[in-house]
Amino acid sequence: MSDRFERGLAAIDRLAADHAAIFDPVADIAPDLSRYVAEFAFGDLYTRPGLEPPHRQLLTIAALAALGDVRPQLKFHVAGALNLGVEPATIVETLLHCLAYVGFPRTVNAVGAVREVFAARGLLPVGDQRPTA
Amino acid sequence: MSDRFERGLAAIDRLAADHAAIFDPVADIAPDLSRYVAEFAFGDLYTRPGLEPPHRQLLTIAALAALGDVRPQLKFHVAGALNLGVEPATIVETLLHCLAYVGFPRTVNAVGAVREVFAARGLLPVGDQRPTA
Amino acid sequence: MSDRFERGLAAIDRLAADHAAIFDPVADIAPDLSRYVAEFAFGDLYTRPGLEPPHRQLLTIAALAALGDVRPQLKFHVAGALNLGVEPATIVETLLHCLAYVGFPRTVNAVGAVREVFAARGLLPVGDQRPTA
Amino acid sequence: MSDRFERGLAAIDRLAADHAAIFDPVADIAPDLSRYVAEFAFGDLYTRPGLEPPHRQLLTIAALAALGDVRPQLKFHVAGALNLGVEPATIVETLLHCLAYVGFPRTVNAVGAVREVFAARGLLPVGDQRPTA
Amino acid sequence: MSDRFERGLAAIDRLAADHAAIFDPVADIAPDLSRYVAEFAFGDLYTRPGLEPPHRQLLTIAALAALGDVRPQLKFHVAGALNLGVEPATIVETLLHCLAYVGFPRTVNAVGAVREVFAARGLLPVGDQRPTA
Amino acid sequence: MSDRFERGLAAIDRLAADHAAIFDPVADIAPDLSRYVAEFAFGDLYTRPGLEPPHRQLLTIAALAALGDVRPQLKFHVAGALNLGVEPATIVETLLHCLAYVGFPRTVNAVGAVREVFAARGLLPVGDQRPTA
């Protein structure tokens, strides 16, 4: 294993309870894909200095919401954000902030995906100190 | 409730048997999102003069088909179009018209979503007066 | 020339002052592409019964705005809509209607493309009978 | 039936065990859509000279992976590639090649779709002669 | 002018030297569009509590990079980030973080757009304390 | 320089007359981005066994055409395909094959980008042995 791989694996482990969710589904078909996830996406990119991990997670969530058709990855990274200590309301706020760029349909679907993660962890309802207009 | 909210709610109610489908799924996580749906998407935009509601629905269906990954919203607005009196064949025709721009895969998937709405209402087969080549 | 081709060419000619804008740019590299435009996009799809040509144009504009990166085609079809007698304000209204789905950035860019077509025809400012809030 | 239709149907039959997967789902709602699939997508485009059918399949897989939200079509064409004799590892390799353009989330989801097709045919694990870094 | 409009205008003014860049281009064709930008995108969304303005800008940049075809908006919001005191290197870091999701082509083009903003302000070269491998 | 970097650089040099087109535009803003292009996109992915370089180029072209808003990258890779000995007609054929998935507008724009590369090399008109219907 390269240094990049080990560094990426450590980053995944800080994010997820278990990195099996990334490695197992492709182990018998494209093991190199999860190797690249560890080496490049996490080992090269995620561990760069210059941005705090919680902010990185929110940037990821913004980008995934804009892509629109990547629900499993969105759920993985929302769980990762929670594991890093990001407040549920901050994750929701991130999606509401992006609403103007992403549009309503993809935002509604992204919120639905986030809700599944929150529900599984007993985090609903999300405390909301926001004005109700 | 603002005037915009009430105006939007009335627009939703003309479209859907029940606006709960929009409000309930986000009530415990992002109530502001459904408020924006009512105030902005429906209260500001949908109720503008200059286009008839049935035409607005077909424009929505064209845009959602092009986005491609927003099946729940497509089904909601197809049901809305039927509720406004749009003929099933006109909805199908809208998707066929957009085929050249949207491509076959997304169009086939959009037709599949529309078919689910039609099937639930007993509207199949769609009467087709079109030439068969 | 097939019937489909001639039927499509006639449809293009009703839409555009001149179909050279479609045929010339690809004549020395992919003439079959413009043949398919004529035969399939216009001969098969555009000339189907069930939707009026002006409405077809607005559906096209909605789909192209949602795609987002097809400015030349958007301008071609906006010009086509004007040639079919669609009011400038109705074209703008179509883009504003789709704003909730398409998002602000792509809508702003689509309006900018439409503005170029209107400016070249001396159609600015667009008469606006809409409420200003 | 036109020549284009018959030519397209023959192309589909070389690709799929059964063309019912294309025709049946839209038979009672948009039969013209499957007619266009046969006539245009397969009769006009797929049967053109200049590219071998296995390469055409891989190009299709690359394009569908980039579109990202067209899982049923991706699975259909992966099955088609296998039916044409393409090696499972070559299909995986195609997705890995496109990773830099398509991004990780859509690639991971595409590999997941491909895996379902391979699993149903008992093709797992995919023999992998590739270096492990 | 509504409170929402004034609140949005103030938010735009904190971001941009001059809000004319938003209002002027659509003034003679779709003034309601810039009103919605001010009222909704900035007045409703941007001014919500729960995220600091510099972080909001970086989320916007992530979402716009993922959309891919919205260069003018990306440049506007990069300039806005600088005006809010975000370090140039942090903006670049945001795009590099999103590379795994957005892919190389759109990231390279986004960096090119950012570079134009930086060049116009004499901010090149970007100080880079990052490891060089 | 790592082995991955050198291997990637060699791959770029086989593709392009000069790798400066990749490195220079980001040298003063995001040098790590071009490092990742060399190390990951080319060093890791492009040099994998299992697909011939000319086929890799055509897969790239298919994916980029589907992404739709990445004209500079499309032109770079079309030039690369020519440098690898791919026939101009095969490149055009690749885009026509993807037309059913990508749709007409993005295909027409992709062909326009390809045409610019061909024109700069004096490769027009493209010899076309294809049937004209």
Please outline the helices and strands.
The structure is a homohexamer of 133-residue chains.
Chain A: H1 3-15, H2 20-23, H3 31-46, H4 53-67, H5 71-83, H6 88-102, H7 104-120
How many strands, what sense, and barrel or not for the largest sheet of chain A? Answer: none
Strand content of chain A: under 5%
**Biggest chain-to-chain interface with counts:** D-F, 35 and 35 residues
CATH topology of the largest domain in chain A: AhpD-like
Radius of gyration of chain A: 15 Å
Protein name (chains A, B, C, D, E, F): 4-carboxymuconolactone decarboxylase
Organism (chains A, B, C, D, E, F): Labedaea rhizosphaerae
GO molecular function (chains A, B, C, D, E, F): peroxiredoxin activity
InterPro entries (chains A, B, C, D, E, F): 4CMD/NDH-1_regulator, AhpD-like, CMD-like
Tell me what the structure shows.
Chains A, B, C, D, E, F: This is 4-carboxymuconolactone decarboxylase. Chains A, B, C, D, E, F: GO terms for molecular function: peroxiredoxin activity. 6 copies of one chain form a homohexamer. With 133 residues, chain A is mainly alpha-helical. The first copy, chain A, has 2 domains: 1-48, no CATH class; 52-133, AhpD-like (Up-down Bundle), CATH 1.20.1290.10. Helices cover 70% and strands 0% of the residues of chain A. Chain A is built from 7 helices and no strands. In chain A, helix 4 packs parallel to helix 6 and helix 5 packs across helix 7. Chains D and F meet through helix 3, helix 4 and helix 6 of D and helix 3, helix 4 and helix 6 of F.
